Amino acid sequence: MQLALEGLTKKVGAASWLYEMSLAPQPGQVTVLLGATQAGKTSLMRIMAGLDRPTTGHVRVDGTDVTGVGVRERNVAMVYQQFINYPSMTVAENIASPLKLRGEQNIAQRVRELAGRLHIESFLDRHPAELSGGQQQRVALARALAKGAPLMLLDEPLVNLDYKLREKLREELTQLFAGSVSTVIYATTEPGEALLLGGYTAVMDAGELLQYGPTAEVFHRPQSLRVARAFSDPPMNLMAGDALADGVRLKAGPELAIRLPSAASKSLTRSLTIGVRASALRLLPRPGDAALPGKVELTEISGSDTFVHVETAVGELVAQLTGVNSFELGAPITLHLSPEQAYVFDAQGALLIAPARRN
Known about the structure:
Number of helices: 9
Largest sheet: 6 strands, mixed
Oligomer: single chain
Helix content: 10-25%
Order of helices and strands: EEEHEEEHHHEHEHEEHHEEEHEEEEEEE
């Protein structure tokens, strides 16, 4: 199905929950709504589902205006953070309910298959009240997948699961979505989840749609500082700089050999913001690198990576280092940055330069 949102806004009293936006998710693909809490993701999904009506604008499905058509009259599958299951039915009966409505064959086999993928096959004879919150969420996911609706809305569906299971199910869902003909809208606050799911990403912030496109393209070429902040975990390191005739000088820091667009290079006093992802900062220098000396403020170990917070003359920077590393607090340290891995944003926060992508 082709879902198209045209000029949507949503106001509640005097407050604007969604500012005017238009979006046409790719049919049969996954579109991730990425943004922090209160970015407007759930409000937008409720309008997509028919649970709420926009203040202005239209919702079209395959060219037909369905604005104001209720959720009961739409073929939509939904899973929200607040999972909903039928309490009087067993897990197997919950998953089977949409299959029975469609009159499908081999229902028991299909139920076992979905339960196995979501790791709840041992709970098929139990009722939802006998399950943990994470187990109930997986039942809701299985029922939504069983429905096979042309539009599937998933609002942070893994948020109630423990870390290990969440990581495993992300990979499972990617495979499940790849074999589906549904248009999937998946809301999350986590950039890593968007990258894992792939497909397309719509970045939202404070009720605004900032950028939409193929996930890898949005990640590698954020059109603005707001997008860069939203689509980076840990947050992108941002440093103030000034345009020079032959590059960029960081305030209280070194000069970077970056070739600016002609319009920027002519304005030598033009203020810029230099962005660097944590993974681009290194301890060992390479030819052409800029050195950023400082001292260790904090060290965090996450999985097989170490995140080092360093206080420097250009501000606090976070470096993502591979492996488990140990640093003494206050110890001197020098980070190294290649100008080729720097993002440059103009005074209004618009992207001027992005690093070249390496395949």
